[in-house]
Amino acid sequence: GKTVNFWSLPLSMGPEDGKGFNCFFPMPFSNRARIEVDNESETGLICYFYIDYEELQVLDSSYGRFHTCWNRENPCDGQDYVKLNEKNRKAEKFSKKNEAHKGDYIILEAEGEGHFVGCHLDIHNLFETERFNWPGEGDDYIEIDDGEIILYGTGTEDYFCTAWSPSQYYCSPYFGITLPGGKNWSGKISYYRYHIEDPFYFHKNIKVKIEHGHANQRSDDFSSTAYWYQTEPHKEFNSILPVEKRLPRECPKERSR
């Protein structure tokens, strides 16, 4: 993996070289709380930590519990982008429609009552080409309470509060780019967006999805972490992938070091 310094309101990675991990998400609990760090690597781990908490006589029963889940699709079920570019010009590539939103990358599927407060999205651009190789333009699609409310975005970078195929490192309280990718957006790219001021409330369920490239035409390596609060019980999580399927891919430049 790779660590990098960044700051935001709920999460940060600080010096030296992003090795100081900090989380400021409130995590309400009634009877007990437990946080575990599981080392599944082949080397030892030196770790220190401290936790601040407040004890109350009574906790409001309406408080949701903090949830998070990680997902990965490696690669996404799209097309060979290099061949697609050889057959189509840029304008033609963006003309395809995905009105049913089948095959979108899933960031979150939750059931119950609560509110979605943000996510990280990591994209490993798997294609090497001199042609326009921007892996974004995937519309975000948020469906709330069996479709009673639908929010339909216009592109990957727009959901993450940026524009025009960004290629710069940037941090702010609620959105940022911690890894902007290399030349022509090659290699690894990481974004974050937190809905602290503008949470998405749901009473039955919520689906948060995003296209992998316009109309799901790309097949890059996508992974994500979603953050939300909800009352219990929650939908059963999918089994986490084994270690070997969670490891990041190497980039050509990384292999040559």
Write structural notes for this entry.
InterPro entries: DUF2961 (IPR021345). Pfam families: DUF2961. The protein has 257 residues and is mainly β. It has one domain (63-256): Jelly Rolls (Sandwich), CATH 2.60.120. 9% of the residues lie in helices and 32% in strands. The strands form three sheets. Strands 4, 6, 9, 10, 11, 12 and 14 form a seven-stranded antiparallel sheet that branches. It has a four-stranded antiparallel sheet with strand order 5-13-7-8, with no helix packed on it. Strands 1-2-3 form a three-stranded antiparallel sheet, with no helix packed on it. The longest helix has 7 residues, at 81-87.
The shape is globular
In CATH, the homologous superfamily goes by the name: Protein of unknown function DUF2961
Low-confidence stretches: none
**Overall CATH architecture:** Sandwich
Order of H and E elements: EEEEHHEEEEHEEEEEEHH
Largest sheet geometry: 7 strands, antiparallel
Q: How confident overall, as mean pLDDT?
A: 90
Cα-based radius of gyration, to the nearest Å: 19 Å
**What is the terminal-to-terminal distance?**
15 Å
Into how many domains do the coordinates divide? 1
The number of E-state strands comes to 14
Give helix % range.
Answer: under 10%
What is the CATH T-level topology? Jelly Rolls
CATH C-level name: Mainly Beta
The secondary-structure class comes to: mainly beta
Organism: marine sediment metagenome
Pfam family, one: DUF2961
Protein name: DUF2961 domain-containing protein
InterPro entries: DUF2961
